[in-house]
Amino acid sequence: MGTIGELGEFGLVGRLTRRLPQGPDVLLGPGDDAAVVAAPDARVVATTDLLVEGRHFRRDWSGPYDIGRKAAAQNLADVVAMGARPTALLVGLAAPLDTGADWAERLYDGLADECAAAGASVAGGDVVGASEITLAVTALGDLGGAPPLTRSGARPGDVVAVRGRLGWSAAGLALLAAGGGGPAELIAAHRRPAPPYEAGAQARGLGATALLDVSDGLVQDLGHIAAASGVRIEIGSAALPVPEILGPDGTRHVLTGGEDHAFAGTFPAEAVLPSSWSAVGVVTEGAGVLVDGRDPGPGGWDHFRV
Amino acid sequence: MGTIGELGEFGLVGRLTRRLPQGPDVLLGPGDDAAVVAAPDARVVATTDLLVEGRHFRRDWSGPYDIGRKAAAQNLADVVAMGARPTALLVGLAAPLDTGADWAERLYDGLADECAAAGASVAGGDVVGASEITLAVTALGDLGGAPPLTRSGARPGDVVAVRGRLGWSAAGLALLAAGGGGPAELIAAHRRPAPPYEAGAQARGLGATALLDVSDGLVQDLGHIAAASGVRIEIGSAALPVPEILGPDGTRHVLTGGEDHAFAGTFPAEAVLPSSWSAVGVVTEGAGVLVDGRDPGPGGWDHFRV
């Protein structure tokens, strides 16, 4: 199979694009100066993230397929968190020239499969040589005529609810850092998050006033809603979904763990939330985030723990 | 001012976004899970490039402001080469934590100013720590109701024409590599290309059948049009715009130099091209690119030179 350096830019691009099925939203796919993607709403939701080896993933802890799925997931979740439907991904790959071409192919398989799970496609990108592996992922989406679900719409009296796994990725990461023992489901959850992509449209239908995906940890991310909305968010730890598998540090993982890309939102008090959403707190007057009435500290846990 | 590591992610993002004016196409700018950008045509043109320090720029050869302008220019030019109007840029910056915050600020000033020159804005992005500086730039644009100007529409009998400087960046790079003597305009052209952004709409108005921006060199990029269109392109070296300032290697720089982001297109033979376009060749039956009737070789020059 050889290395990406042996294939060269055009050879590698040809090899990778052949693995990328194009969905109906991609009007012009890879191969020209730019892609053309449907934006029927006449607005496009767009977000970009960089993932750097050693900081955002480790090749000895995750295979290329899972790295691709995770890189796609974190950007697709950002689009969904705006209440939008993901349409396309653009992917830049910087990698040492001695990286195996098969490694790159498996990476793109993961990107393509995660896109397919969200109804999107990898519509374009770039590959360049570099001394470390960096992935630059841009996701696009369509709002379908609705206003974007921002972080700034939470109002006192709203209910705070979450959908999706929380703390699983952090618990899995802790296991990997400790040598890899423990429940395989947790390690799998760290390697490949499973955001419930239907949560964006669902939240919109439920009248959500604010929504985001939990990438830095529940307390920290709810702090973004509190700051943008000019409100306080009060969480009750007893209401948190903390399954036994998360172990003795479960509550901490749920409050501070990122990377599961669960969705957290605020809803009018009268909203009837289906069981896929867990009500974990309320919006009040004030600022910041309280857990059980106390300031959990900058790490989302520090003071709380004392 | 300090380093980006001292500021931290949120401090740095706040500092940078304050420097980014938002144009009318940005409906929701930095600060949420994603940006929202106008796409009045109901399609969005999207392209992404990675720029890696040491491969695509050198900090000892270019200051951060020029690096920002160049990074924006190369992506904005890709949007224009589709016949579209650039609307927004998303920028990912990976950098060592000891990078000066003022360096990052000047980089974003350059990105913002180049966007403004093309009628676009920096609508969002990401900053992360890394061991080398990498810029990931995504550009979006609007087609205004017209079909995209692809690489695949050239037809035998068309005229091949270019607009914008060719060879200037390569000549400037050669001067820098040789120690920096020679015309300052060439070095400036290498540091900061000046794509004629109006060329896309103009080419569309002139009935262009194919268009791209010259990023890898005229011969190599015209080869992309030839391959995508299933035609041959025949260039006459005497018709090339080779100003005296380019020196004795001028013709080679014009044929093989990239990074000026001039535009090259094919037009119906009856098109009346304004003086801003230079007719440099014709489209014929066949394949590949000939210069003065000969195959210029894989580098766009090698055989030609012999």
TrEMBL record, chains A, B:
Keyword Nucleotide-binding: yes
Top-level class of the enzyme under EC nomenclature: transferase
Binding-site positions, Mg(2+) 2: 49, 78
Residues that hold Mg(2+) 5 according to the record: 216
Pfam families associated with the record: AIRS
GO MF entries: ATP binding; magnesium ion binding; thiamine-phosphate kinase activity
Enzyme Commission number(s): 2.7.4.16
PurM-like N-terminal domain location: 31-141
Other noteworthy facts: Reaction mechanism of ThiL seems to utilize a direct, inline transfer of the gamma-phosphate of ATP to TMP rather than a phosphorylated enzyme intermediate.
NCBIfam families linked: PRK05731.1-4 (NF004351), thiL (TIGR01379)
Record's function text: Catalyzes the ATP-dependent phosphorylation of thiamine-monophosphate (TMP) to form thiamine-pyrophosphate (TPP), the active form of vitamin B1.
Protein name: Thiamine-monophosphate kinase
Gene expressing this chain: thiL
